[in-house]
Amino acid sequence: MNLDNQSTERHQRLSRAAAQRLSLYLRCVGRWPSGEDTISSGQIAEAVGVSDAQVRRDLAALGHLGQRGVGYDPRELAQAIRTALGIDRQWRAVLVGVGNLGRALLKYQGFRAQGFEIVGLFDSDPAKLDQEIEGLRVEPVEHLTARTAALQAELAVLTVPADTAQAVAESLVAAGIRGILNFAPVVLKLPRQVRLVTVDLAIQLEQLAFQVQHGDFRPPEDD
Amino acid sequence: MNLDNQSTERHQRLSRAAAQRLSLYLRCVGRWPSGEDTISSGQIAEAVGVSDAQVRRDLAALGHLGQRGVGYDPRELAQAIRTALGIDRQWRAVLVGVGNLGRALLKYQGFRAQGFEIVGLFDSDPAKLDQEIEGLRVEPVEHLTARTAALQAELAVLTVPADTAQAVAESLVAAGIRGILNFAPVVLKLPRQVRLVTVDLAIQLEQLAFQVQHGDFRPPEDD
DNA sequence: CGTTGTGAACTCATTCACAGCT
DNA sequence: AGCTGTGAATGAGTTCACAACG
Questions:
Q1: Does residue B17 reach within 7 angstroms of strand D, measured from its CB?
Q2: Nearest residue of chain B to residue A89 (CA atoms)
Q3: pTM of the prediction?
Q4: Which nucleotide is nearest to B43 (CA to C1')?
Q5: Which of A176, A184, B128, B176 allows an S-S link to A165, with CB 3.0 to 4.6 Å?
């Protein structure tokens, strides 16, 4: 079959925006009808809502994957994107804050399918301790630092109230966590070696209101 | 080439990124100790984690709000940001898909406080109909178009499975909705006059993995 | 042919540096 | 003095346009 493990030549560094688009491309490419054995930049572009030039620019950054006049091999392309995004392996994560949002994320199918596994649950509410959710037992936050290290979790999902988020984040840092996905509406201050992605739901709604209010218009279909 | 429109009040159009930062500034400014009657770009910058020049550039786009040598008046500034973002008024929204995530959002405090009110709940699962959550009764999606118009909702929050998201979105469009906050992991195709903000949780985790994997591409910033 | 890959042009966004006001 | 507002410079990101190739 495909011996696609050539030397990992990286042509250029991917921007955040580019990496985000790659995630979208991956969805499209991964779901491509298995009957088809090629996919073109134009087809990806249309499915995702960006320009074909953008798609080619992004994919070219991963190496020479396409055949001129033909297109890309969906399977090879999907694998290359996974590798570039760092999701060609399993990631272990803990979840802190087993409230409504935390539970929703736990049951969200998309995570495990993409290689993310929640391996620990923590909460400060004594009433929630020892509850079992999705096969995991809720543990007290006091054990967070020790247990996170023991569980060998590299990532953490933070769904705690805003006023405790910074303290919890520091416990995670102490446990040697490498990245935090934060849903608390605060700006966390972390050491530079710990990566942070914050998803602020209220801000997203504000963005929507802003766009509606402001009659934000753009000539082509976009975003 | 393009004749610029006649917008006179605003000095320049806000980019999406700028609007997002304004939301963050608003948090900081709104919480500013009421004893203090001024706040400087440097203070905002430090709280939010951007440069002071960035803050001044963003705020200058809202008009001349600052006093040279002094700073900004927190109350006046907060109001100006709210107006610019379009959250100086109430927004009515419906929520479609009363699953775990939908429930989490419903109970999320941040929304109502910022002027967003959920005025209708819809789900396709008969078992959920007539449940009462946060004072609202769950209605069948078949009523979505008619009820959304009757409720005078301008925005919608979509927390339905991926495979039904497009159809539900079209029902909302038929009801005259103006903006959709979409949590389904799909690229929705909407008419251009309907604004769309998509929050894809799996993609955010992938972003985090990508950043961790790739070490750092961000210059060390303040502390 | 059709499609990729990419220099070049272009647009958008951020930082610099300092004039101008308090 | 301190701080804002902004032209100019820089940088990042996107599109254009076309050569290169199966």
A1: no
A2: B209
A3: 0.91
A4: D3
A5: A184
